[in-house]
Predict the structure.
Amino acid sequence: MKTYLEEILSLNSLKIGYVSGKKENILLPPLSASAIRGELIAVIGRNGIGKSTLLRTLAGLQQPLGGEIFYSKKNIRDYSRMELAQEVGYISTEIVKVSNMRVYDLVALGRFPHTNWIGKIEAKDHMAIMDALKKTSMESFREKFVSELSDGERQKTMIARILAQDTGIMIMDEPTAFLDVAGKYEILHLMRLLSNKNKKTIIFSTHDLQMAISQSDKIWLILDNKLFEGAPEDLMIAGEFDHLFDSSTVVFNSEDGTFSFRSDTKGNIYVEGDGNKKHWTMMAINRAGFNVSKEKTFPYVIIPSESNKNWRLSNKTGILEFSTIYELITYLRR
Amino acid sequence: MNTGIQKELSIGFISGRKRRFIFSVLLLLIFILLILDIFLGSVSIKASEVIRAIFTHTNSNFETIILKFRLPKAITALTVGVALSLSGLQMQTIFRNPMAGPYVLGISSGASLGVAFVILGFSANITTDSLNGLGNWILVAASWAGAGAVMMLIMVISSRVKDIMTVLILGIMLASGISAVVTIMQYFSNETMLKAYVIWTMGSLGNLTSSQLNVLLISVSVGVIMSLFSSKMLNALLLGENYAGSIGLNVRFARAVIFICTSILAGSVTAFCGPIGFIGIAVPHIARILFKTSDHKVLVPGTILLGGAVMLISDIISQLPGSENVLPVNAVTSLIGIPVVIWVILRNRKYSGSF
C-alpha cells in the first residue's frame, strides 16, 4: 500500500491469542496492517472475534504469539516497558473508581514514564497535565474527585491521562461504550480533533458501524479469515461490510451505509414528490415491509406540497389522506 | 504564560503547606504520646522520678520499670503501629480492596502458622530461653514465610473473585482453616512446647526481650524504606494492573516488591507481639480522610505517623492509667479499629466498588 506519510505502526503477520498452560490459543489468522501519523482508525468486528485481544497486544499488555509489531520501525520486543509507555497509551473499558483520587491526580499518573523514582511532579509535568486537561476541556474539574464524575467526564479524564502520557499512539477499547448519544459524539469529536490537530494516531474499537464509517480515516475490519484495511469508503465499495452480517436477515446498503432487515415484501409502492419528506417517507414505507417501486403503478403515495399538508395514498379503489407519516404507515401495516 | 504556571504551582503549594502543617502536628503528637506512654502506667511514678530515671543512674525500682519495661514497650508500640498500618495500606492498594488488612485477610494467621511451626515443630532444639539471637531470626523468618504464603493465596483468590466482600469472607475462612491446623499441631505437641506457644499467642507489646526488639526494629526499618521506594508503584497500581502496565509499570516486579515488604512488616510484628487486629485496616482509611488524597507520596508517610500515634494511644488506654489492671492491647485496637471499618463499609455502599 502506498503511503505519503511516516508509518508509525505496522503489524506483520501478527498472531494474537492466549496461552493457557502449554497450549497456545491463537484467535485469528496472521494479521497485517499499518497506521500512519495522525490517523483515526476504527477496529470493527463481531463480538468475541478478538478486537480487545488485538488492542491489548498492541498496547504491550499481552505477548504476540507470532509475527511482529513495529512502532516507528522498531520491534515491540525491543522496547522496555517504560519506553513503550512513551510510544503507546491505552484506555480499556475498565472503570477507574478510586475514592479520594482527584481528576488532576489521575491525569498526573499519565506522567508515570516521565517522572523520577518517587513520581515527583515537576513544572514541565504540571504543564503537560494542565495542557491535557485543557485539550479535553476538563480544566474546571481538576479538583473534583474521580468517583463523582459522570461517565462522559470520566472518559474525558482518561483521555487526558494518555495525553499527559505524551504518546504518539492512543489505543482505546470501546471508548464510547457506556455513553449516551450526546456523550458518544462529544468523545468522538475529541478523538477526531486530537488526530487532526495534534497528529495523534488513535486506534479504537467500536460496535457503532455508522459512526466508524462517517468519522474514521481508516477501518481495520476483522473477519474470521482476514483483516481488511482501508478507507471506510473503499471497504464499502468492495462490499466487505456484508461479511459482518448474517446475510439472510440483514442487508447492508453499500450506497448510503445504512442497514435494513431482509423481510418478505408485502408489495410495491411508488412515491411521488421530492425533498427530505420523500426520503423519510421512503424509509418508513421500507420499514413497514414494502418496496419502493421505480415505476408509477398502484398503489402510490403523493408527498404533501406546500398547499396540501396531507400524504395521499392512491390505490385502485380511491384516495386516502393522512396528516402524518405515522398514520400512513399504521394504515399500510394493518 | 510563565506567570500563569507560577500561579498554578502556587495553588499546589498552599495545599502542600497545609499538608506539611498536618505532618508537623502528627510528629508533635507522636512525641507527646511517647512521653505520656512512658509516664503513665499501672504503677504511678512521679514525673520527676521518670526524668531522673532516664537521665541519671539511680538503680531504683523506678529506673528498672522505666528503662527495662516502659521505654521498650513504648518503642515497640510505635514500631508495631507503623508496621501494621503500612502493611494495611499496601494490601488495600495491591488488592484494590478497602477491606484488606493483615488481620482480616488472614495474613497474621499465616504468620502465626509459621511461628507455630517453629515453636511446636522444632522446639526439641529451640526452647523459649534459646529464642534469642539467631532463634529470633528463625522465628521472624518463619513468620514472614507464613505471611507471604497467605498473601499469595489471597492474590490468587482476588484475581478470580472480583467481589470485595467475597474475598473478605474467603480471607476469614482461610484464617479459620489456619487456626484449625495450629490447633491440631497443639494437640500433637508436648507440654513445654504448648506452654511456649500459648504464651506467644497471648502476645503483647511488653514481652519483648531487647534482642527481639532489635530484630523487630531492623525488620520494620527495612519495610519502611521499601515502602517509601514503592510509593510510585503503588500509585500506578491504584488504576489496576492493565492501566499500570500501560503507563510503564513492571507489574510483576512491583507486586513482588510490595508482597515482600508487606510480609516483612506484618510477619515481624506477628512473630513477636502476636496477632494484633484492626490497626492495619483502619489507619490507612484515617490517613485518607485526613489528607483527602489517594497519592502514596503523602499516604505512606501519613500512614506511618498515624499508625504510630494510634498504637501509642491504644497502649496508653490498655494500661488503664490510675488503675492496677492492664487490658490486652488487642481488645483496645479492635475497639478503635472496628468503628472505622464499619464506617468504610457503610460509605462504600455509596460508591460501590471504589476504595
